[in-house]
Amino acid sequence: MKLLAQSLKSLLERTKLSLDKLLIIGSTGLVGSKLAFAAAGHGFEPYNTQNARKSPFPNSTRLNITDRDATLRLVGEIRPKVIVNTAALTNVDYCETHKEEAEKVNVGGVRNLVEAALINDCRFIQISTDSVFENNEKVRAVRDQYSSPTLADNLAEALLRLAKSHENGVFHTAGRSCVSRQEFVIKLAQVFGYPTSLVEPVFASEFQQVAPRPKNCCLRVDKAERSLGMRFLTAEEGIRQMRRQPQPQGDSSDRLC
């Protein structure tokens, strides 16, 4: 029995050594947590960072990416093969009224990570998104703004495939559908069994939004699908897959971005 335990321990250590180190910046967020869960299945040993919220994952370290010295030190200690940054201020209205803070995090923080990646010869993947969608029981849904809703699990798979890839550039990793906010909410209601009469269509001009929103944020994913060897889900496919997933406990975020 002792010999078997030693053999298993040795096997685990060899397996761990064969995995590439993946540093996930922002593992407490939706996409970051999906990456941490799925990393091992793609040949990575995940290392995670947290800031305002405590990460539930092992190998987690607190990091504020606006702290250049701390960022360079952590990346130098871990020496990951790939860094994926999922940390950002994403509320566009907040960013519009807190421009200095937004630039410090979304520009300065990224600059620190890029510098750390260059020093340590790491592959670096940066995520950019137009908005985060939130659903309510009674909703007014904009009929004249279009986007490509993306299931977080689908996005995490794309990021891990990209982390293994040697291709560089800009990749559109998003859902295959181009739908208005109204169409998306109606699909959500239909799949989850709510009456579509709860959805009230409105024009974007009826909302008092601090930051202007583009009318069309839809993305073509053909290049990413070819390069990564995968297929992105349509909005309805993503919603149906989300419907089949276990409900999260406690504080949760929507799985479609």
General description of the model:
- It is a single chain.
- This protein is α/β, with parallel strands linked by helices and 257 residues long.
- It has 2 domains: 15-128, 3-Layer(aba) Sandwich (Rossmann fold); 130-244, Rossmann fold (3-Layer(aba) Sandwich).
- The protein is 41% helix and 14% strand.
- A 5-stranded parallel β-sheet has the order 3-2-1-4-5, sandwiched between helices. Strands 6-9 form a two-stranded parallel ribbon. Strands 7-8 form a two-stranded antiparallel sheet.
- Helix 7 (181-192) packs parallel to helix 9.
Question: What can be said about this structure in brief?
Answer:
By secondary structure, this protein is of the alpha/beta class. The protein is 41% helix and 14% strand.
> Radius of gyration, rounded?
20 Å
Query: What integer is the average pLDDT?
Result: 86
Number of helices: 9
Question: How is the largest sheet built, in terms of strand order?
Answer: 3-2-1-4-5
Q: List how many beta strands DSSP finds.
A: 9
Strand content: 5-15%
Roughly how much helix do the residues carry, as a percent range? Answer: 40-55%
> What's the N-to-C terminus distance?
49 Å
Sheet of most strands: 5 strands, parallel
* Corresponding CATH architecture of the largest domain: 3-Layer(aba) Sandwich
Low-pLDDT parts are 1-5, 131-135, 249-257
- For the record, the CATH class of the largest domain is Alpha Beta
Secondary-structure element string: HEHEEHEHHEEEHEHEHH
Question: Which overall shape is indicated by the principal axes computed on the Cα atoms?
Answer: globular
The CATH superfamily of the largest domain turns out to be NAD(P)-binding Rossmann-like Domain
Overall tally of structural domains? 2
Structural class: alpha/beta
